[in-house]
Design goal:
By secondary structure, the chain is α+β, with helices and mostly antiparallel strands. Helices cover 34% and strands 24% of the residues.
Length: 311
């Protein structure tokens, strides 16, 4: 039986709970902590919310943060469907989202929170959307990425608010929402398959293979690129696809996307990335340090060159 989502009216004690939690986190992490913030609906006065405080923070080192937080009762749950995040729970009362070094997620969450705080009419609109979503019997059902209909149903509103703010950063995200999957398939088909007269299959085995990871690349709230990485049995990471939309080419975004993908592979323990490069993309990859390698793997086209890079 699906557990119903529990949403409470605004509780004035929520900021106090945050302050107490932030104090204990600061004491546990000491100089490892760079910054910490109260985010989510419990951080917006008057807004109803699930009775769980969301906290976001930035640390210098994940490995040192995990045992320190564990010592004060926080349970590490890994990335939990968001790249570069370390997610912690403290009972049923606190969600802690940690990032290392730098993350655009910090400024995104603050921008959303501050806009709702400064614009009561937007906060009221958000409240009404929540109420409507809760009336839907499917709001508690989770999709394949473990997100409920309630959370996914807020996506368009959140993006519309972020679009009104000064936030304008680049983000690498897994495909989670149906909007992201739609854009992912469309960009891959248009940019990687159609030009070579290759039939695009939406139901390719990679869509459900647990060793395949599908990414969208955001500029503010617009998806400007996509990528897919597969891990082979020997631990080699294979870049199966990479594409940016024509309107955002020659701006350095593809290079930034590759930097983030390499960072993600290293976090996953990968030491090598290999790929089948189209001949017209060879120069791009070589500038990033990729060299010709032996790669006993069949690509979708014979008109490619095999490249790789040790991370």
């Amino acid at each position: 039986m699906t557990k119903q989502i529990e949403v409470h009216l605004y509780n004035p004690s929520w900021p106090i709970i945050y302050e107490n939690a932030a104090k204990s986190i600061k004491e546990a992490l000491e100089n490892n902590l760079i910054e910490i913030h109260h985010i989510g609906s419990t951080s917006v006065p008057g807004l109803s919310a699930k009775p769980c405080i969301d906290i976001i923070g930035l640390v210098r080192n994940f490995k040192a943060a995990i045992p320190a937080l564990k010592s004060i009762g926080y349970e590490s749950r890994g990335e939990m469907h968001l790249p570069f995040r370390e997610y912690f729970r403290y009972g049923k009362e606190i969600n802690l989202h940690l990032y290392e070094g730098y993350s655009p997620e910090i400024n995104l969450n603050i921008a959303f929170r501050d806009y709702l705080r400064a614009n009561p009419e937007a906060a009221q609109e958000y409240q009404e959307l929540k109420d409507k979503l809760l009336q839907d019997s499917k709001s508690s059902v989770k999709n394949n990425s473990n997100f409920t209909g309630y959370n996914l149903g807020k996506d368009n509103f959140i993006r519309s608010i972020i679009a009104k703010t000064k936030y304008n950063e680049l983000r690498l995200m897994y495909c989670n929402h149906h909007h992201e999957w739609q854009q992912y398939h469309q960009i891959r088909k248009t940019e990687l398959f159609d030009p070579y007269n290759i039939v695009f299959n939406h139901n390719h085995y990679s869509m459900t293979d647990p060793n395949c990871y599908h990414f969208v690349f955001y500029k503010k709230v617009e998806i400007i690129g996509v990528a897919m990485i597969q891990f082979l049995a020997d631990g080699t990471a294979v870049l199966r696809s990479l594409a940016t939309v024509p309107s955002h080419r020659n701006k350095g975004y593809a290079k930034e996307l590759m930097f983030l993908l390499e960072k993600w592979v290293k976090i996953r323990g990968g030491k090598v990335i290999k790929l089948h490069s189209a001949l017209d993309a060879e120069h791009f990859y070589r500038k990033l340090g990729y060299e010709e390698v032996e790669f006993n793997d069949k690509g979708v086209s014979d008109n490619v060159i095999d490249l790789g890079k040790v991370l």
